[in-house]
Predict the structure.
Amino acid sequence: MATQSLMTSTLRIDFENGMNEKGEPIIKRKAFSNIQSGVTADQLLQAAQALASLQVHPVIAIIRQDAMNITA
């Protein structure tokens, strides 16, 4: 049976940074690495909202990216 273990977590916040010549949104991303494995979704949301309040551009998405190690 395969097992998995968390290797790394990253918090990513996507911002809309205007429109291009085709009228599509330009997306800028900020990433914060080394997120502790025990951090809950509510804690991440609260941190992301605090960081977003310091930005000029509106937030499009708040994403947690986990990298897992899978072994047999």
